Amino acid sequence: MCNARYLLLLCLLAGITGLSDAARAAHNESCLGCHGEKAIVNRGGSRLYLDPARFAGTSHAVIGCNSCHAKVAASHPADGIRPSRASCRDCHAPVQQEYGNSLHADKADCVDCHNPHAARNHATVSGRDINEQCAKCHEHGQIVGSHAKWLPQTSLHLDALPCITCHTGSQNYYITMYITIKGNDSPTGDFRLATHEELARIAPGRQFVALLDSNGDGKISLQELRKFNKGAADMRLWGMMMPEVMTHSFQILDNRWDCTFCHSSGPKAMQTSYLAIPEKDGRYNRLTVEKGAILDLLYGTPDFYMMGATRSHTLSVIGLMIIGGGLLMPIGHGTLRFLTRKNRKEH
């Protein structure tokens, strides 16, 4: 499945449209000359407006507007003819076949969930962005109510998992950490996902990346996580368990009812983690986190705890010392009595 998608993308990028990168960029710029201006909303509705900066960060911007809208007359829009639109199946036939066998197949079409002008790889969006797509049909209160029948601390679980983690067939998972900030408009001081603009105000430019990646090597170490957590009073890291491969095989899987699917000791999924940095165009850029650092409760991510998986080296040492001390007393006492048994018999 993945190879098929990769080949399709390569074909598109290689030039199904017959355009070079420069030509595609020029064509996009020509279209955005009108569709990138908010004034077009007054002429034809909000659906015609595209934010140029955000569209530039989408998957479809790479292949060019005329890959999907091949027939646009030179006199457009004066001719009044609506440009042609490609079918999703033209490029995503394997995905549609997979989706056609899922529980959603007869309930929603591609565009019911996906805006083709905002299409992004799932690794470049947040888990909450993904859940917002599901919330178009599945009202949050109803989801909480149905899951609360069997899932303890339901709201907490649903906030730490995108729906696709449990309801698609991906086999491999990782933890993505997002920067959250304290909401100024909330009297309770609740934390929410930080935007690029908010972080840029805290540290101008892209200097906010250095708040975590202090040595600039593009990787986040346990030491850097510890430094950030000690110094950032109004910022926290929020973790979500994400599928490594996005599938469209929406289904109800029996093993997701088993707590050990997530809460098992030292699972491989929890050892791999990333820090997601919000970019100006709406995407998230990922920085690799030191393997296993995410599971260090005291020094790594004190606000991220996964029972059965999260560990603290310091607490482990203290625990071993307590166990060792507890064993030392009876063993030492028994050994001493054994060594002094003759002397005690004489007296």
Structure overview:
With 347 residues, this protein is an alpha/beta fold. The chain contains 16 helices and six strands. The chain has helices spanning 2-15, 21-35, 40-44, 52-56, 59-63, 89-100, 110-113, 127-134, 140-147, 154-160, 163-167, 196-202, 222-231, 268-271, 313-339, 341-346; strands at 173-182, 191-193, 219-220, 235-243, 273-278, 284-289. Strands 1, 2, 3, 4, 5 and 6 form a six-stranded mixed sheet that branches. The longest helix is centred in the C-terminal third of the chain and has 27 residues, at 313-339. Mean pLDDT is 82; it is low at 6-18.
A few lines on this structure:
About 40% of the residues lie in helices and about 10% in strands.
Secondary structure blueprint with pairings:
Layout: H1 2-15, H2 21-35, H3 40-44, H4 52-56, H5 59-63, H6 89-100, H7 110-113, H8 127-134, H9 140-147, H10 154-160, H11 163-167, E1 173-182, E2 191-193, H12 196-202, E3 219-220, H13 222-231, E4 235-243, H14 268-271, E5 273-278, E6 284-289, H15 313-339, H16 341-346
Parallel strand pairs: 1-5, 3-6
Antiparallel strand pairs: 1-2, 1-4, 5-6
Helix pairs in contact: 1-6
Q: Shape from CA axes? A: elongated
Estimated share of beta-strand residues: 5-15%
Q: Give the proportion of residues in helices.
A: 40-55%
Unreliable sequence segments: 6-18
Count of distinct strands: 6
Specify the number of helices.
16
In angstroms, what separates the terminal alpha carbons? 83 Å
Mean pLDDT: 82
Radius of gyration based on Cα positions: 27 Å
The ordered string of helix (H) and strand (E) elements is: HHHHHHHHHHHEEHEHEHEEHH
Oligomer: single chain
